[in-house]
Amino acid sequence: MKETLYGELCVVGMRGCESFVQQVDNYLKEWRRHGGDESFVASVECPRFSTGEAKALLHQSMRGQDVYIICDPFNYGVTYKMYGKEVPMSPDDHFADLKRVIAAIEGKARRVSVIMPMLYEGRQHKRSTRESLDCALMLKELDSMGVKNIITFDAHDPRVQNAIPLSGFD
């Protein structure tokens, strides 16, 4: 039996990233010469209750796959209904949905990686008085949930990777 170092590729797009994820899917199909209509994108949703609380639903199995979750926590164009009113999603709401999806995938995927173009809480990377180190806390939280790699293009201060020295941070 031959053991591989990778699983089948799976891409998950969080709300607000749909068009970018479609472009990634088209590129992957072309690059891998992947014929047919089969997509690398997994169907995931985070429906909201009227109170604003949510849950994650996976519409397909991700068992044994290398899952890449693309999340844009600063997309204020995404809204949801809470008590009958349309509310824009804050970075905290986006991050909570990301954690819900990771929790739903947890233990099934071979490897989970998060692609976050702008790092959530990246501006709170150092402490000046009695402040929380939110960026380090977020990285540790994702690491403890089983995320193997975090890919970002704007870490603000690359030293934040010291919060998770044994994990992949690019």
Beta content? 15-25%
Query: Architecture in CATH?
Result: 3-Layer(aba) Sandwich
Radius of gyration: 17 Å
CATH topology: Rossmann fold
How many beta-strand segments?
Answer: 9
Q: Give the helix proportion (percent range).
A: 10-25%
Report the average pLDDT across residues. 84
The ordered H/E elements are: EHEEEEEHEHEE
Detail the poorly predicted runs.
none
Q: Main β-sheet, in a few words? A: 5 strands, parallel
Biggest sheet, spatial arrangement of strands: 1-4-7-8-9
Distance between the termini: 33 Å
TL;DR of this structure?
The chain is of the alpha/beta class and 170 residues long. The protein is 24% helix and 20% strand. It has one domain (9-169): 3-Layer(aba) Sandwich (Rossmann fold).
Give an account of the 3D structure:
The structure is a single chain. The chain is of the alpha/beta class and 170 residues long. It has a single domain, classed as Rossmann fold (3-Layer(aba) Sandwich), CATH 3.40.50. Helix content is 24%, strand content 20%. It has three helices and nine strands. The strands form three sheets. A five-stranded parallel β-sheet has the order 1-4-7-8-9, with helices on both faces. Strands 2-3 form a two-stranded antiparallel ribbon. Strand 5 and strand 6 form a beta hairpin.
